[in-house]
């Protein structure tokens, strides 16, 4: 058989199974991978407020823990730590609490010298961002605990001068924690009172309509 006849037979033959694998298209694995979850700041409704909610309190902890590596002056460390703690207290009390969870508290001194707690809360229909609320409350509970353990360490090491910083930190963070706990409790009581009042009002209307209907059914004429 000539070479021309062999080439004709090969060209007319059906393609082998191996040729089918050459046309196989690989699966797009990237399209099947789950999309990465957005960061906390992207999920937050107030990312700037969330950042400042942590900046000053973390800064105070960093100064307290690492100041000895940069300066031997306790007075300088004390002043910087006090400024950071004061900024943190004011920011959490007046700004981040209102923006992140819709709560605000303060204390007023009456003419007779007594202290009165005053609370503000968001509208019941305004639901706070879940990420903002979670980060706010977690940090509010965790920070006093951290400072408390640092106080124990200072006592064990007999670093009593550092207890001045820790004591101020515990007092300021504890005041914000107690204030917001009371404010949150007051807000829940207000909302439950509004809900029960609305339900009671509707029940009264329904009861009045039902009583009139039953009275008509059993009346003469």
UniProtKB/TrEMBL annotation:
<dbReference type="GO" id="GO:0016192">
    <property type="term" value="P:vesicle-mediated transport"/>
</dbReference>
<feature type="transmembrane region" description="Helical">
    <location>
        <begin position="162"/>
        <end position="181"/>
    </location>
</feature>
<keyword id="KW-0333">Golgi apparatus</keyword>
<feature type="transmembrane region" description="Helical">
    <location>
        <begin position="135"/>
        <end position="156"/>
    </location>
</feature>
<keyword id="KW-1133">Transmembrane helix</keyword>
<comment type="similarity">
    <text>Belongs to the TVP23 family.</text>
</comment>
<dbReference type="InterPro" id="IPR008564">
    <property type="entry name" value="TVP23-like"/>
</dbReference>
<dbReference type="GO" id="GO:0000139">
    <property type="term" value="C:Golgi membrane"/>
</dbReference>
<keyword id="KW-0812">Transmembrane</keyword>
<keyword id="KW-0472">Membrane</keyword>
<dbReference type="GO" id="GO:0009306">
    <property type="term" value="P:protein secretion"/>
</dbReference>
<comment type="function">
    <text>Golgi membrane protein involved in vesicular trafficking.</text>
</comment>
<protein>
    <recommendedName>
        <fullName>Golgi apparatus membrane protein TVP23</fullName>
    </recommendedName>
</protein>
<dbReference type="Pfam" id="PF05832">
    <property type="entry name" value="DUF846"/>
</dbReference>
<feature type="transmembrane region" description="Helical">
    <location>
        <begin position="193"/>
        <end position="214"/>
    </location>
</feature>
<feature type="transmembrane region" description="Helical">
    <location>
        <begin position="73"/>
        <end position="92"/>
    </location>
</feature>
């Amino acid at each position: 058989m000539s070479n021309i006849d062999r080439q004709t037979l090969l060209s007319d033959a059906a393609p082998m199974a191996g040729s089918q694998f050459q046309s196989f298209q690989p699966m797009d694995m990237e399209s099947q991978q789950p999309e990465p979850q957005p960061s906390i700041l992207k999920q937050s409704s107030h990312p700037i407020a969330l950042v400042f909610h942590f900046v000053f309190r973390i800064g105070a902890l960093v100064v307290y823990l690492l100041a000895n590596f940069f300066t031997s002056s306790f007075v300088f460390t004390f002043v910087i730590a006090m400024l950071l703690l004061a900024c943190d207290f004011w920011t959490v009390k007046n700004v981040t609490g209102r923006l992140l969870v819709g709560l605000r508290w303060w204390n007023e001194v009456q003419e007779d010298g007594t202290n009165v707690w005053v609370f503000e809360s968001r509208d019941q229909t305004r639901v706070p961002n879940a990420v903002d609320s979670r980060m706010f409350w977690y940090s509010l509970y965790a920070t006093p605990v951290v400072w408390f353990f640092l106080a124990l360490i200072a006592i064990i090491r007999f670093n009593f001068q550092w207890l001045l910083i820790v004591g101020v930190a515990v007092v300021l963070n504890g005041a914000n924690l107690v204030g917001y706990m009371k404010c949150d409790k007051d807000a829940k009581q207000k909302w439950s009172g509004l809900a029960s009042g609305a339900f009671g009002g509707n029940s009264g209307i329904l009861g009045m309509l039902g009583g009139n209907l039953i009275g008509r059914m059993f009346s003469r004429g």
